[in-house]
Design a protein that fits this description.
- Belongs to the peptidase S33 family.
- GO terms for molecular function: epoxide hydrolase activity.
- Pfam families: EHN (PF06441).
- The protein is α/β, with parallel strands linked by helices and 451 residues long.
- It has one domain: Rossmann fold.
- The chain is 43% helix and 12% strand.
- It contains 18 helices and 10 strands.
- A 10-stranded mixed sheet has the order 1-2-3-4-6-5-7-8-9-10, sandwiched between helices.
- α16 links the parallel β9 and β10.
- α2 packs antiparallel against α3, α6 crosses α7 and α12 crosses α14.
- The protein is globular.
- The protein starts with 9 loop residues before the first helix and ends in a 5-residue tail after the last helix.
- The N terminus is likely disordered.
């Protein structure tokens, strides 16, 4: 005999329904957000509690955080499609929906985690802040110590593909005499480095911290390399001119003469008397100032407002992918990598879609979207204005960089220019896009500093 349930009143049905929904929501909430605050790294204890000790670091992200990431991606509330057929209104909806599809279904963070843990990762406290770094010593004698600094929206992941060519050049067709001991730190507020809780952690303080780091590792003399913000830090190191610094190599040089800076700020046409290279650089810089710097303006003035970078993976990804010039530079390589094909003839080189997602996922898991943005707020200098340094400097000019620094400007900005070369391929993310060519440039640029 089948049991016949007693009929329920509407009020009882509502109560039961609300109660069931409440229980279910609570259960789902616990599952969705379980352990998302749990540590994603393991750091060895310092002997005697000395935080300035060099402490090994290992990465292991709890599975609950990866589940939460995929849940958030799939729950994205999308805006309407842009009303144009290009990227002039920002990152296209179709592109971000493809990012979301791949990120939430096919992407595997554990592969990146394995790459990270295959490298020697460490943490040490400098000036009250934990600084994370990768330290790979070369097997070759007389290798030159070199500290390489990433930029934004990059990270240490930008440098993965240059570690082998620079530390073990003989495996890549180069000479043992070109080997480097490599130190790759995470900028303050980025990746596994600490997030500053006070103001003052800009390029100048970071440059001084890098000197402390290299000396703490036992390097009495060393060189520095950087692109993007890493180039800014390298230039500041050269300006500070510590006695330990042999020289620098930059692929994002600061060369713009004062009179050109003023003309750009005033929105003037190119001054008369410029060479063809100088006029081309002026036009590139003028276009960049007008169309490609919205993110810099926000991060330089109102970084705390960017709450979406901490709350929405797609919000974070779209912000990091948008440089206002998705099919040109510096975002062209990122765009082509995300699509998995050349876009408008722009190649991603060696950069893959998963390389880009490794980088974005690192920002997400470490919740460093806003703390990284603050580095711009802490930077009180024009990134491309003439560096005015006398430390030996090498400059590589990649053809798809923000602007191609003319040799004439470069010689005025770097008073002891030991190397200048214009390449025929590669762009803003040169270490990612063209790791072999990038490594060759670093070797050639710093070769004269070896004893």
């Amino acid at each position: 005999m089948t049991d016949i349930p007693f009929p329920q009143s509407p009020s009882r049905r509502r109560f039961v329904g609300v109660a069931a929904a409440t229980v279910a929501a609570g259960t789902l909430s616990q599952l969705a957000f379980a352990d998302t605050k749990q540590a994603i790294t393991e750091v060895a204890s310092a002997a005697g509690g000395d935080k300035t000790a060099i402490r090994p670091l290992r990465v292991h992200v709890p599975e609950s955080q990866l589940i939460d990431l995929r849940r958030r991606i799939k729950a994205t509330r999308w805006p309407d499609r842009e009303t144009v057929t290009d990227d002039s209104q920002g990152v296209p909806l179709a592109m971000m929906q493809e990012v979301a599809r791949h990120w939430s279904t096919d992407y595997d963070w554990r592969k990146c985690e394995a790459k990270l843990n295959a490298l020697p990762n460490f943490v040490t406290e400098i000036d009250g802040l934990d600084i994370h770094f990768i330290h790979v010593r070369s097997k070759h004698e007389n290798a030159m110590p070199l500290i390489v600094t990433h930029g934004w929206p990059g990270s240490i992941i930008e440098q993965f593909k240059i570690i082998g060519p620079l530390t073990n050049p003989t495996a890549y067709g180069a000479s043992a005499s070109d080997a480097f001991h490599l130190v790759i730190p995470s900028l303050p507020g980025y990746g596994f480095s600490g997030k500053p809780t006070e103001t003052g952690w800009g390029p100048e303080r970071t440059a001084r911290a890098w000197v402390v780091l290299m000396k703490r590792l036992g390097y009495e003399k060393f060189a520095a390399q950087g692109g993007d913000l890493g180039g800014v830090v390298a230039n500041v190191m050269a300006k500070q001119a510590p006695p330990e610094l042999l020289g620098i190599h930059v692929n994002f040089p600061a060369t713009i003469p004062p009179e050109i800076v003023k003309a750009l700020q005033d929105g003037d046409p190119p001054p008369s008397g410029l060479s063809d290279d100088e006029k081309h650089a002026y036009e590139q810089l003028s276009s960049a100032a007008k169309k490609r710097r919205a993110y810099i303006a926000e991060q330089s003035t109102r970084p705390q407002t960017l709450y979406g970078l901490a709350d929405s993976p797609i919000g974070l990804a779209s912000w990091m992918l948008d440089h206002g010039d998705g099919y040109i530079q510096p975002a062209a390589a990122l765009t082509s990598a995300v699509y998995g094909r050349d876009v408008n003839g722009e190649s991603s080189g060696a950069m893959t879609r998963d390389d880009v997602l490794d980088d974005i996922t690192l920002y997400w898991l470490t919740n460093t979207g806003v703390s990284a943005a603050r580095f711009y707020w802490e930077s009180h200098l024009n990134f491309t204005a003439a560096a005015d340094v006398s430390v030996p400097a090498a400059v590589s000019v990649f053809p798809r960089e923000n602007y191609q620094a003319p040799r004439s400007w470069t010689e005025r900005a770097y008073h002891n220019l030991i190397y200048y070369n214009r390449l025929d391929k590669g762009g803003h993310f040169a270490a990612w896009e063209q790791p072999q060519l990038f490594a060759e440039e670093v070797r050639a640029g710093l070769r004269s500093l070896r004893t």
